[in-house]
Amino acid sequence: MDDGASRKNHEDAAAGHTPPPPPEPSAAEKTQPTSEGIDTSPSRRSDQPLRLDSETWDIESISPMAALRMLIGALQDLADTMGDVPPTPPVSRPTTPRMGAENQPRRTSSPTLNGSMSIGSPEAHAHEPTYIEHDTATEDDFLQRTAIARRFFSKTAPSFDVRDYLLRVHRFCPHSSGVYLAAAAYCHRLCVADLLVPATDRTVHRLSLAAIRVAAKALEDNKWTQDRMAGVGGVSKRQLMNLEVSLCFLLDFDLGVDGKSLARRMFLLQQAGRHGLGAQSKLDGGFRLKLPLRRRVNTVA
């Protein structure tokens, strides 16, 4: 005895109608040309990095790998141009030692993932501040910005370059093109526009890791866990958190980006790497950290 569905199929066949084909999951990834005849499918985006000659370019034309390679190339060129900029002395206060602390094992590395590339010990001590006080009794602003900028310095340059480092991060924690372009925008503001953190072989690893992490949190809904990102990046969870907080403070928590600003910042970052910071090529010892003063605004209830 036929059920209702079989009876309906027989009726459709008799009437000359055929049921629609079964859905194909792979077909969802195939996009059709738009009204302008442009195919914006992710599979059509180029993996080749662009060498920009204008701040007006199509950010939708590149794949995440291409965006990452553009970030890597710009940072490496900028680090080669700047040379080495030593950090200033630490801004810290003596801490009260804990009883028995000398007998406790010291943790020297973060959790690893398939042989993580450790980027070494930070120049800043764990007890150095990562925040800015906002009252009238705050210390000199130079000391405040020094405490924050030192977070991005490694004691020694890692044995691998930023290219190998970020390609590994992308292998285990891939991100979208927008995240890498936003990270480039953050790096341009800190290293070039505002001269807050110099891009050197001792800073670009921590700086790029923090920029990618903050960009992912600002732009994407789904993010890699803190444990995984820290393990792949070769830092501890606490170090990664301190880097994120430091970067957000130096950016004044202004993390918003749009397509036009992403295209412009990437172009300017490439330009800075190619030609140096104007007359400050090799810096000539002229890199001076600066941080805009922020004061608490007292409100009347």
UniProtKB/TrEMBL annotation:
<dbReference type="InterPro" id="IPR013922">
    <property type="entry name" value="Cyclin_PHO80-like"/>
</dbReference>
<protein>
    <recommendedName>
        <fullName>Cyclin-domain-containing protein</fullName>
    </recommendedName>
</protein>
<dbReference type="GO" id="GO:0019901">
    <property type="term" value="F:protein kinase binding"/>
</dbReference>
<feature type="compositionally biased region" description="Basic and acidic residues">
    <location>
        <begin position="42"/>
        <end position="54"/>
    </location>
</feature>
<feature type="region of interest" description="Disordered">
    <location>
        <begin position="80"/>
        <end position="115"/>
    </location>
</feature>
<feature type="compositionally biased region" description="Polar residues">
    <location>
        <begin position="106"/>
        <end position="115"/>
    </location>
</feature>
<dbReference type="GO" id="GO:0016538">
    <property type="term" value="F:cyclin-dependent protein serine/threonine kinase regulator activity"/>
</dbReference>
<dbReference type="Pfam" id="PF08613">
    <property type="entry name" value="Cyclin"/>
</dbReference>
<dbReference type="InterPro" id="IPR036915">
    <property type="entry name" value="Cyclin-like_sf"/>
</dbReference>
<dbReference type="GO" id="GO:0000307">
    <property type="term" value="C:cyclin-dependent protein kinase holoenzyme complex"/>
</dbReference>
<feature type="region of interest" description="Disordered">
    <location>
        <begin position="1"/>
        <end position="56"/>
    </location>
</feature>
<dbReference type="GO" id="GO:0005634">
    <property type="term" value="C:nucleus"/>
</dbReference>
<feature type="compositionally biased region" description="Polar residues">
    <location>
        <begin position="29"/>
        <end position="41"/>
    </location>
</feature>
<feature type="compositionally biased region" description="Basic and acidic residues">
    <location>
        <begin position="1"/>
        <end position="14"/>
    </location>
</feature>
